[in-house]
Amino acid sequence: MTASTRAACSAHVPRACRARGGHGARRLDAYEELLRDRQTFFPPITGRSDSPDYQLWHGEAIGTIATAEAAVMNVVQQWHDTAGREGAFTGDADLRLAVICGQVVSMCWRAVEHRLFRTVGTGSLRNGGRIERIWRDLSMVHTHAGPVFLSSAASRELSKARMGVDAAPIV
Predict the structure, then answer these.
(1) Positions of the chain with pLDDT lower than 50, given as ranges
(2) Which of 75, 153, 161, 169 is deepest in the core (most CB within 10 A)?
(3) For residue 14, which of 168, 117, 166, 147 has the smallest C-alpha distance?
């Protein structure tokens, strides 16, 4: 694995969306506890797990995080397949894998930020509470300068490579 792919994947993807224990999966666990334990805010007042709205938000988050997890597994398979072929691991292949890793982080962020965090309720966001810690950790992964700039640079360089435009090396 080359430096840019290693940096993009090993630094952020495992922390953001691993199938077990990643921020996306941990957030789903915490959200599911709230669905079981809390009621809706507006009539009809029911358990959140019985609410079509909460079921929709939960289901969409599950699908998004599962898609991100599948992408991580696919990146691993692509890397393995490419690394096993002499001379196949080109800059283009490296950049493609790095861009996929950046997209995985973005997908997990969207699932948590757009579907889960907005619907947990302020009482669940106590300082030091489980959901607040998960939010803080995922926010750090999503907004850290390294992932932000590496992902942007890899996307630009991948486009240049695919279009035949002179590409500057990523430092």
Answers:
(1) 1, 4-8, 10-21
(2) 75
(3) 147
Q: Which two tokens stand for residue 149?
A: 């700039």
| Interatomic CA distance for residues 154 and 171, integer angstroms | 11
Question: What are the backbone angles phi and psi of residue 85, rounded to the nearest 5°?
Answer: -105, 125
CA gap 33, 14 in Å, rounded: 23
Buried b (16+ CB within 10 A) or exposed e, 124-144: beeeeeebeebbeebeebbee
Best CA proximity match to 16, nearest among 82, 119, 124, 101: 101
Tell me whether residue 48 is exposed, middle or buried, using C-beta atoms within 10 angstroms of its C-beta: 0 to 12, 13 to 18, 19 or more: buried
- Nearest CA to 8 out of 74, 99, 107 is that of 99
β-partners of residue 39 are 47
| Per-residue pLDDT tens over the stretch 89-114 | 888 888 899 899 889 988 988 888 88
Q: To the nearest 5 percent, what fractions of the chain are helix, strand and coil?
A: 75, 0, 20
